[in-house]
Design brief:
The protein is of the alpha+beta class and 421 residues long. It is 39% helix and 19% strand. The radius of gyration is 27 Å and the shape is elongated.
Length: 421
């Protein structure tokens, strides 16, 4: 969320951001409610001070004045109850609206309504020209008995997958590959649970919107998270970190779950959109400084690009427009790998700088060196690797005519030195 003082002082800018990001929020109504809540709190403060002042005098008063003061104190108490009741309705309504206020995007963010207006910044690598009819990843997996989609669907439902043999080894190798890369860059490996409390989803900004994409476990009153980012954002909630502890760099590994409620009929074949997957998440908590956050943003992006180059996958870098970047994002780039069967690039990574928008929601703070001033941290994240999503372009780009799959040289140490899958 944004600081309410910032919102009051920058109404036109916030209104433009609401419009550019297609957020369903009436800012004028919210600010009107803000004034009412502020006035109610002020009245309550004044009345409580008045009541306390009267109460403190009672022991020193004569009997007549004492009874008169007690009666007056009771009148004030009745007024307090009335205002508290009114505030108990309006404060939650205001809080809900504040959660919808989007982050102000970077000045170079493209303005657009949806992903059709995202901007291609550059392309790396050249899509392969095959001298045979290339297969899609589904057929490659089935012909080699590396997956079983039909049997697992009977047990787990649609959009499920199971990998076998060499493909299963490949999935694990890819995660170890990125983990080693991130560890070498100073990231701490951390495994996190997938079950989270509701407040953690509010902390990252996945709630109150986005509930349709999240699985709920009513018996436990817990949710299944779609990214380690959710746990990592709240891991240090309500603490006051010391600036010397920053930046905190995590390589978060976890099973992830998404219901894909809004994607009916899309990419249901194979590994593109599945309900459960594994992901390593790059995650950074740094001090409240744009230049510092941009440095880490570039590090997250460069690491993902290194991975795609090491895997020898042609890819493009996309600047996400305001209508596609999400409410909390200051800046967001997607990386998309070339997928031959679909003759297009498909997203493999999503790199985001959220400045202090998440930290305010999650109460993630640090004490500044020198001034001792307590500030909200900045948070950033990017996919390290997500499987099985990346297996689709990997298998298709490296397939051979006879159905084998070539293993890029830098990945071979993780595959027992094998040249082919």
């Amino acid at each position: 969320m944004l600081d309410i003082k910032f919102i009051r002082d920058n109404v036109d800018l916030v209104k433009k951001t609401i419009q550019d990001k297609n957020i369903d929020l009436d800012l004028d109504a919210m600010l009107s409610l803000d004034k009412e809540v502020f006035a109610l709190n002020q009245k309550l403060q004044d009345l409580r001070e008045e009541k306390n002042a009267l109460t403190s005098k009672i022991p020193t008063l004569s009997e007549d004045l004492k009874q008169e003061t007690i009666a007056k104190s009771k009148e004030i108490s009745d007024k307090i109850k009335i205002y508290e009741t009114e505030l108990s309705t309006k404060q939650p309504e205001f809080n809900e609206m504040m959660l919808l206020v989007p982050n102000i995007p970077a000045k170079d963010t493209p303005i657009g309504k949806d992903d059709s207006e995202n901007v291609i910044l550059r392309r790396e690598g050249t899509p392969r020209k095959f001298d045979f009819e290339p297969r899609d990843h589904y057929d490659i997996l089935e012909m080699n008995d590396w997956a079983d989609f039909k049997r697992v669907a009977k047990v787990c439902g649609s959009r499920s997958y199971t990998l076998k043999g060499a493909a299963s080894r490949l999935e694990i190798a890819l995660h170890m590959f990125i983990m080693d890369k991130l560890t070498a860059k100073g990231f701490t490996m951390i495994t996190v649970p997938s079950m989270v409390k509701e407040e953690a989803l509010y902390g990252t900004g996945h709630f109150p919107t986005g509930k349709d994409d999240v699985y709920y476990l009513p018996k436990e009153n817990l949710y299944l998270s779609g990214t380690a980012e959710i746990v990592l954002t709240s891991l240090h909630s309500d603490e006051i970190l010391d600036e010397s502890q920053l930046p905190i760099l995590y390589a978060g590994y976890s099973p992830c779950f998404r219901s894909e409620a809004g994607s009916a009929g899309k990419d249901v074949r194979g590994l593109i959109r599945v309900h459960q997957f594994m992901k390593v998440e790059q995650y950074v908590i740094c001090k409240a400084d744009i230049a510092e956050s941009e440095k880490w943003y570039n590090t997250l992006l460069e690491t993902a690009e290194e991975l795609l180059k090491d895997l020898e996958l042609p890819y493009q870098v996309i600047a996400c427009c305001t209508g596609d970047m999400g409410a909390g994002k200051y800046k967001m780039y997607d990386l998309e790998a070339w997928t031959p069967s679909q003759n297009k690039y498909r997203e493999t990574h999503s790199c985001s700088n959220l400045t202090d928008w998440q930290a305010r929601r999650a109460n993630l703070r640090y004490r500044e060196n020198g001034t001792n001033k307590v500030k909200y941290c900045y948070t950033l994240n990017n996919t390290g690797i997500a499987t099985p999503r990346i297996l689709a372009p990997f298998l298709e780009n490296h397939q051979t005519k006879d159905g084998k799959v070539r293993i890029p040289e830098k990945l071979r140490p993780y595959m027992n030195g094998k040249e082919f899958l």
